[in-house]
Write a structure and sequence with these properties.
Bound molecules: flavin-adenine dinucleotide
Largest sheet of chain B: 5 strands, antiparallel
Strand content of chain B: 15-25%
Largest interface: A-B, 98 and 95 residues
CATH topology of the largest domain in chain B: Uridine Diphospho-n-acetylenolpyruvylglucosamine Reductase, domain 3
Distance between the termini of chain A: 57 Å
Number of strands of chain A: 20
CATH class of the largest domain in chain B: Alpha Beta
Number of helices of chain A: 34
Helix content of chain B: 25-40%
Oligomer: heterodimer
Number of domains of chain B: 3
Chain lengths: 785, 401
């Protein structure tokens, strides 16, 4: 009945008391959430999940936080979606059989779960609350390509003891199936369900919404004035709450059942789901890919990429010799690895079929999840000998398709090599295995006052191996540089299985800077199995200031002058008028609406230092006819300044679908490129909003369009390509941090001459003559040697 | 010496040499002529004909310069806008006894950095884009003008520090930073035990005070700095830079902690600037001799251990930069390469580069740290892809490199 419920309601609420499932599984105490997983935003917006509880379906095994315990969360869902026998699934689950895979249970799973209409909560409510907050009102969350959703304070979650369902209601955590017109089955199901339960919800609507709503609101921590305000903006939340109150708590599942399908809520659902889709863009791919790929054209989580389903980007054709020997190869590989380290069954391969560039999928030949460098070496030696392509994979969060496999490839996942091997404060280094997540490093050393500087928004999930693959950046890179500037050494396995070490705890190379070459090479030069990175002493504090300017030009030249003055802020964020309007309408952060552009500048240091730096910055801004200056005296005010910015991508997602570009331009060209960008989108009849890190010229124009309209989608993609070319022509490049992957591969000739590309490919050949490593990526397929 | 006046010329010269099986040494103005293993080549190509600032927008903080442009010209242009190369390229003329004007191409080709390197990155970290001529005589462009760029393989890093053995740089584009308005130095005196100095420096780096220089100057070299005006004995020096208000706050904090190690004094702006320039240029060993001089890069905590071990077996004089991880080491007699490199390997790895020695000593010593076989083989393959015929100073770096 559990799965029946699941697919009828598309919502699962699990708890030890309310759901028959746990009783049936006879799980006693819920397993404490063991990992240091956090939703991280700015210092204010942090949700610490350590005190939360994991859904009991998850198995936790000692140190290994990546491999084993993951899929039990969503795997059953996947299997159920495949129509597998329910009893068998439950049996497997009870037996807690490890089902290996690349993901871990973290916020993305939850987010992804929601996106796929499956919500799994523990009755404790903490996880739920955090998820709810994350997804709902104050989620201050933002864009899939660039930012993880950000929840509000963990403290709030801990203090809050309301019923999960109430929370679910209030925060609009409701299941919803995106109405994709072609999906007839689903439409029919929707109708049935509506008939079924319509009367109940109608009655519920009559309840006193206002009063009930406020009762709950009052229980939210009062130190966040924005909360209540924000909640008020959601009539849907109030209705939902009313339903909850009316129905009481006897039949929680029915209640939600009602909620979901009441026609009065359609509108809210629609908005909500749009938002979820965007938020989930990242994770849905890795979470329940099946739900996406089996449903024919129904792709609930990737609307903004739907157009790519035209398969405009080609992969190399599978090598016939490899495909023909599939069984032998799997047998041989199995001999090279411990028993649980090779995945080859179709249904278990599916989670690896794509990365965060989810519009393209290829089920690989097999997946190896080695635990040691020696195992990696053995695999490489074998694959090289038989010409089997290998696609290295970290967490699979690449936004450019860098980790998407191909049919004839072995995915070499590093996720099980996730140990921090050594932290050395005297030398300010950490030596870690490649599968360690970016955030894990900072978490491990944070308590001692250090951090690892490059902080991609995906830092909760992405691995250091993947960061090296993509030379990832982050919000702090204006001051601290990107991965390559913070990487001291790697241990890596070459294509023939040779293990080499480059760099170490010392600086600079003895010979050629191969380390520099490997960083950003997108898995084409070898498999990184260990890395030594630089640690930095954590600054004492950080504080933002907000400026509004008449024009983008003024804002742009203010950026140059700030940087030129000798003050190095940690972040300079830019928003243009459309972006300000979208964010303000959504987040109500009090942004000035009478300005043409807005900057948020953040500095670091002690109080006295920050005072001095901010004073200097304000002075510079005044020279640029700044119209609005908002400094902050408290953490709350600081949070408010960031709030709009942080919700930018989510807010944009509420009003339209969008694609996000990643071109970088010289600072002096910012205004010019902004101007041209809007001319380009105008000429396509599209709108554009700009929100980006101005300090380093890495632009992220969001092109707004309607994904349900194929023509519009095609236009958006064409406009995107134009914008990338514009960036290159302005002296910039195609990609500042997301990598080339397959996404921008075919645009490479716009940036590089034939000779340039040939030279790069020649150097690539010094590492991998036979194009074994991640061969479909980076270099255009035509004209390869 | 061949002095092409344009990139096209350079490409022609190199193409011709390749066709005629000639080998070429690539140089700017040869102020670092002592770098690497001595190799005989048929001819020498200098970038000195390729000069001039191509593009410099101070507001963009990026500069594009032809490779043969004198560093002095670049620095003057930057100084006029209160900007600088944050990696503080050292000037090798003093220690190498060379003359002439160092070129900007030479700085990047040799990846030359200074005291700020350990926090702000090396020359290679500032280098954003290059144009170069490969061993086939083809003009190649890599990187660009922007700080964030993951488009394709990073050939920029590969060419930086390749010592003119992979390609002839014709143009470089690099990031610059504003000159910090205030510089101050905290001096801890009397740490005669290098190990203790290393501890003090590590403690300073663990504080959120943004130390931008950390050097230890033992008693033997102290008289060579600031015209002998530093007090006798050892000086462990920590540099703070930035806005005046910020520097003074940080200085107080740092001082408070450092007082646990020894008596603390402070150097003001002018002395600080002079001192760090002298440290950068390895002033104590700009001694007009040919005594073997090593530049050793190891983990900061290993530096003093290597020195202590060596001292038992050889006459060495040293001072430390980069929190102790960079050792400038002058041997009193032989280079002692074997011994030195053995200790480096034993104490966690790193590399020793012989930057100066008599011709005979150089002939018998690998100038660059020998690479492990697999890395050497890989490097050789890389070289072969850029310089297939091996015309650029073959053997300068090691083996065929
Ligand atoms: C929501 C979201 C926000 C993001 N924000 C940012 C951001 O702010 N800044 C930013 O720079 N990026 C960002 N990204 C992009 C992405 O997270 C980074 O590119 C990240 O570094 C990828 O890490 P990964 O472990 O997921 O690697 P994967 O996606 O698995 O792989 C990335 C590439 O590296 C290769 N690779 C992986 N591991 C290894 C290894 N051990 N050895 C050799 N090659 C390997 C792969 O083959 C692939 O080409 C974001 C992505 C998402 C989904």
């Amino acid at each position: 009945m559990f799965f029946a419920q699941l697919f009828k309601n598309r919502l699962v609420v699990l708890s030890a008391t309310d759901s028959g499932l746990f009783a049936q599984l006879q799980l006693s105490d819920p397993v404490p959430f063991a990992g240091p997983f956090r939703f991280v935003g700015d210092a204010e917006n942090e949700v610490d999940m350590r005190l939360g509880l994991l859904p009991c379906l998850c198995r936790i095994t000692g140190q290994d936080r990546i491999g084993d315990r993951l899929v039990l969360f969503h795997h059953p869902v996947m299997r159920a979606a495949n129509g597998e026998d329910e009893a068998a699934i439950i049996e497997d689950t009870v037996a807690q059989q490890a089902i290996a895979g690349p993901q871990r249970v973290h916020q993305d799973d939850v987010v992804g779960g929601i996106a796929n209409s499956v919500v799994e909560f523990h009755i404790g409510g903490k996880l739920l609350f955090e998820t709810a907050f994350l997804m709902g009102v104050a989620h201050a969350a933002d864009d899939p390509p660039n930012h993880f959703p950000v929840g509000l304070g963990g403290a709030a979650g801990r203090h809050l003891g309301c019923h999960p369902l109430q929370l679910a209601a209030i925060f609009q955590i409701v299941p919803y199936r995106l109405p994709v017109p072609t999906d007839e089955v689903d439409e029919r199901r929707g109708k049935d369900l509506a008939d079924d339960i319509g009367h109940k919800s109608a009655a519920a609507m009559l309840a006193d919404q206002q009063a009930a709503g406020f009762k709950l609101l009052q229980r939210l921590p009062q130190d966040r004035p924005g909360n209540v305000e924000a909640l008020r903006q959601f009539p849907f939340a109030r209705q939902a709450l009313a339903v909850a109150q009316h129905a009481g708590q006897d039949q929680p599942l029915d209640l939600v059942y009602d909620l979901v399908h009441s026609s009065a809520m359609r509108d809210g659902q629609e908005k909500f789901m749009r938002h979820v889709c965007l938020l989930a863009d990242l994770s849905a791919n890795t979470l329940i890919p099946h739900a996406c790929s089996t449903g024919k054209k129904s792709i609930p989580v990737s609307r903004n990429r739907e157009m790519h389903l035209t398969e405009a980007i080609r992969f190399l054709p599978p090598r016939a010799a490899v495909m023909a020997r599939r069984e032998t190869i799997i047998g041989d590989l199995a001999d090279l690895l411990p028993p649980d380290c090779l995945i080859h069954e179709e249904r278990e391969l599916v989670p690896f079929e794509t990365d965060a560039f989810i519009s393209y999928r290829r089920v690989p030949l097999a997946v190896a999840l080695p635990r040691t460098t020696a195992q990696v070496a053995a695999i490489m030696k074998y694959c090289n000998r038989y010409g089997i392509p290998v696609v290295p994979r970290g967490a699979g969060t690449s936004l450019s398709g860098g980790a998407i496999p191909q049919e004839d490839a072995l995915v070499l996942g590093l996720s099980r090599m996730s140990k921090i091997l050594e932290v050395d404060y005297a030398n300010r280094t950490a030596t870690v295995q490649a599968g360690v997540t970016n955030l894990n490093i900072s978490e491990a050393v944070g308590i001692d006052g250090f951090f690892y500087a490059p902080d991609p928004s995906s830092q909760l999930a992405c691995t250091i191996g993947g960061n090296i693959g993509m030379n990832s950046g982050g919000a702090h890179c204006l001051k601290y540089g990107v991965t390559t500037n913070n990487l001291l050494g790697v241990k890596m396995v070459l294509v023939d299985g040779t293990v080499i070490e480059l760099g170490g705890k010392h600086l600079d190379a003895a010979g050629y800077d191969l380390l520099g070459l490997v960083c950003g090479s997108e898995g084409q030069l070898g498999i990184v199995t260990e890395a030594t990175v630089r640690l930095i002493a954590k600054p004492e504090g950080a504080r933002p200031v907000l400026f509004g300017f008449e024009t983008s030009e003024e804002a742009g030249s203010c950026v140059s002058d700030i940087i030129g003055s000798g003050i190095i802020p940690v972040a300079i964020e830019f928003m243009d008028k459309p972006a300000i309007e979208i964010c303000e309408a959504f987040a109500g952060a009090g942004y000035p609406l009478d300005v043409g552009a807005l900057l948020i500048v953040e500095v670091e240091g002690s109080e006295a230092e920050m005072d001095a730096m901010l004073a200097g910055i304000v002075e510079i801004a005044r020279l640029h006819q700044v119209k609005t200056v908002r400094e902050c005296q408290s953490a709350t005010e600081a949070a408010l300044i960031w709030k709009g910015r942080k919700s930018a991508f989510g807010a944009t997602g509420r009003i339209a679908d969008y694609i996000c570009m990643d071109g970088t331009v010289p600072l002096g060209k910012l205004s010019y490129v902004l101007q041209k960008t809007s001319e380009i989108t105008d000429s396509f009849g599209l709108r554009v909003a700009n929100v980006f890190h101005a300090g380093d010229g890495n632009m992220h124009p969001l092109i707004l369009f309607n994904a349900n309209d194929p023509e519009d989608a095609a236009k958006a993609e064409a406009a995107g390509n134009e914008i990338l070319k514009l960036c290159v022509d302005a002296g910039g490049c195609l990609t500042g941090e997301h990598g080339v992957g397959i996404e921008k591969r075919d645009l490479m000739r716009h940036q590089f001459s034939e000779a340039d590309l040939t030279q790069q490919m020649a150097v690539r050949a010094a590492f991998d003559e036979g194009w074994i490593l991640n061969p479909s990526k980076v270099f255009p397929l035509e004209g390869r040697p | 010496m061949l002095i092409p006046n344009s990139e096209a010329d350079a490409a022609y010269v190199i193409r011709t040499a390749a066709a005629e099986n000639k080998t070429l040494a690539l140089c700017g103005n040869n102020t670092r002529s002592g770098f690497g293993n001595a190799v005989e080549t048929t001819d020498v190509v200098s970038s000195r004909g390729l000069t001039g600032i191509v593009d410099y927008e101070p507001a963009e903080m990026v500069m594009t310069v032809k490779a043969g442009t004198p560093v002095a010209e670049v620095e003057a242009a930057l100084a006029a806008n209160r900007q600088m190369m944050s990696f503080e390229p050292m000037d090798h003329r003093g220690i190498m006894g060379t003359t002439g004007e160092p070129t900007i191409g030479g700085v990047f080709a040799a990846n030359v950095s200074g005291p700020r390197r350990f926090v702000s990155g090396a020359a290679r970290d500032s280098l954003l884009g290059i144009r170069f001529v490969n061993g086939r005589g083809e003009v190649i462009r890599a990187g660009g003008r922007v700080m964030k760029n993951v488009t394709g393989l990073d050939l920029v890093k590969l060419l930086a520090g390749s010592q003119g053995t992979l390609g002839f740089l014709t143009e470089v584009t690099f990031r610059v930073l504003p000159v910090p308005p205030v510089v101050e130095t905290i001096v801890i005196s009397g740490l005669w035990d290098d190990a203790l100095a290393a501890k003090a420096m590590a403690a300073a780096m663990a504080m959120p005070v943004e130390v931008s220089g950390a050097a230890h100057l033992p008693a033997s070299v102290i008289g060579r700095f600031l015209r002998g005006s530093l007090p006798d004995g050892e000086a462990t020096v920590l540099r703070l830079e930035g806005l005046a208000a910020s520097v003074s706050v940080r200085a107080e904090k740092l001082k408070a902690v450092m007082e646990a190690f020894g008596p603390v004094s402070r150097l003001g702006m002018e002395d600080s600037q002079a001192l760090w320039r002298e440290i950068r240029d390895v002033q104590p060993y700009a001694d007009g001799t040919e005594r073997p001089l090593w530049c050793v890069s190891v983990a900061p905590s290993a530096g003093h251990q290597i020195v202590a071990a060596l001292r038992l077996e050889a006459g060495v004089d040293v001072f430390y930069d980069w929190q102790g991880g960079l050792i400038w080491m002058r041997m009193e007699a032989d280079p002692e390469a074997e011994l030195l490199r053995r200790y480096i390997r034993a104490l966690g790895g790193g590399h020793a580069t012989l930057v100066r020695a008599s011709d005979t000593a150089r002939a018998g010593t690998a100038a660059f740290e020998p690479l492990p076989d697999a890395v050497a083989a890989l490097s050789a393959r890389v070289k072969q892809k850029l310089d297939p015929a091996g015309i650029f100073s073959p053997g300068k770096m090691a083996g065929i490199l």
